[in-house]
Structures are given as structure tokens and as C-alpha cells.
């Protein structure tokens, strides 16, 4: 039914101005103002993301957006340098997974997977993941 249609993702935030600053300035993404004050973000692969303000916003308890990186450690270092905390989960939160390192990167050497989670100003969970996952 939808095999040839385009799709996009969206999620809410509690403060659209803080979201714009974070996604545009901190993460360096192409952010445009969309309909009704929503944010339209164009991602590197051509996909679109819509972020909208919701007064009774409740942050997602799961990862809403994953950024793929060739070098997760380098991406985490850049995020940390921009004031983004990447160690948001403790090992007890990830009980069935390999432990996080001191930067919050979870690695699975057998599968060469690496992932680090962080949040936006509205506490939505985002991640940077290894391109080899």
C-alpha cells in the first residue's frame, strides 16, 4: 500500500524555540520553520523530520531519532564539547546489554556495534549509532 509513498517522522517538544536552537545550532541540522510554527528538518539522506510544540508534551521513553556516524566516539566527543550529555543511561537501565563506557557509549565488540544516547531539550531520547550496525 505505501511501498512507493514518501514517509516522514515527527515528535513533540515543549518549547519550539529551544528545539530550534538545539537542532540547528547544537546538532548543525538544516532547520526551517514550517506550517503553524512547526520545525521542518532535512536530514542528510533526504528524509524529513517534523517537530511540533505540544503544551502537555511528555517525552518519549524510547529513541525517537538515530544519527548514523562512521565514528561514534568522535561524534560523542563533538556532542560533549557542545554541552550535550551522552551518558544518560546507567548500566542498570541497560541490564540486558553490554555496559556503557565513561562517555556513555555502549559497545558490542562481537557485532562491532556502538551506540550512545542523549536527549534534546524536551527530554526526547536521540542516539548516535555506528554505521556498521
Automatic annotation (TrEMBL):
Residue ranges annotated for the VOC domain, each copy included: 5-131
Pfam families registered for this protein in UniProt: Glyoxalase
SUPFAM superfamilies reported in the protein's UniProt record: Glyoxalase/Bleomycin resistance protein/Dihydroxybiphenyl dioxygenase (SSF54593)
Protein name, per record: VOC family protein
Organism: Cryobacterium breve
Amino acid at each position: 500500500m505505501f511501498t512507493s509513498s514518501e514517509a516522514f517522522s515527527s515528535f513533540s517538544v515543549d518549547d519550539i524555540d529551544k528545539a530550534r536552537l538545539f537542532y540547528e545550532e547544537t546538532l548543525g541540522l538544516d532547520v526551517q520553520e514550517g506550517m503553524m510554527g512547526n520545525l521542518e528538518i532535512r536530514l542528510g539522506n533526504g528524509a524529513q523530520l517534523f517537530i511540533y510544540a505540544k503544551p502537555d508534551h511528555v517525552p518519549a521513553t524510547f529513541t525517537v531519532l538515530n544519527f548514523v556516524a562512521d565514528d561514534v566516539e568522535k561524534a560523542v566527543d563533538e556532542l560533549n564539547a557542545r554541552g550535550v550529555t551522552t551518558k544518560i543511561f546507567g548500566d542498570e537501565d541497560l541490564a540486558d546489554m553490554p555496559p556503557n563506557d565513561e562517555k556513555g557509549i555502549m559497545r558490542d565488540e562481537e557485532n562491532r556495534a556502538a551506540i550512545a544516547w542523549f536527549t534534546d531539550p524536551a527530554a526526547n531520547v536521540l542516539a548516535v549509532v555506528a554505521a556498521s550496525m
